[in-house]
From TrEMBL:
Keyword annotations from UniProtKB, A to Z: Ribonucleoprotein, Ribosomal protein, RNA-binding, rRNA-binding
CDD domains: Ribosomal_L22 (cd00336)
Described purpose of this protein according to its UniProt entry: The globular domain of the protein is located near the polypeptide exit tunnel on the outside of the subunit, while an extended beta-hairpin is found that lines the wall of the exit tunnel in the center of the 70S ribosome.
Family: Belongs to the universal ribosomal protein uL22 family.
GO cellular component, one term: cytosolic large ribosomal subunit
A GO BP annotation: translation
Annotated region described as Disordered, given as residue ranges: 123-155
An example Gene Ontology molecular-function term: rRNA binding
Protein name: Large ribosomal subunit protein uL22
PROSITE patterns hit by this protein: RIBOSOMAL_L22 (PS00464)
Pfam family, one: Ribosomal_L22
Protein species of origin: Tanticharoenia sakaeratensis NBRC 103193
Taxonomy, superkingdom: Bacteria
Amino acid sequence: MSKPKHIRTLADNEAQAVARNIRVSPRKLNLVAATIRNQPASAAIAALTFSRRRIAQQVKAALESAVANAENNHQLDVDQLVVKTAEVGKSIVMKRFHARGRGRSARVEKFFSHLKIVVAERSADEGAETGGKTEEPSARRRRAASKSATEQKAA
């Protein structure tokens, strides 16, 4: 007997990697994760390679793991991968103390974080004209209205 098969929560064109108990606070990790969200996977790896933040190398390892999962487990095209989400969550907190003057102590909290990266394969026609970014209909209307207004002024 074995466990029942786990139902896949991601779409067919997505893959993920999870890094748990990373020794950095969630606020600091979220700053690095924000730099790679909605980026092509190759650009995100390049940005993390040259980032000066200490935690960037562990985020890069998690991203490379997600790309490898997409390629090997789900047969997705590596060149078409985009970082769909990079979620940061809280983990354990180690509580320590720091000796202070007059026999007192101060509490020191050492935070840990979780990181979940989901990469998705974008189709060739989807990212061709907008560079992979989707545009809301209201923004399209505003752009079209301003374009027609400038054409009327030029005429």
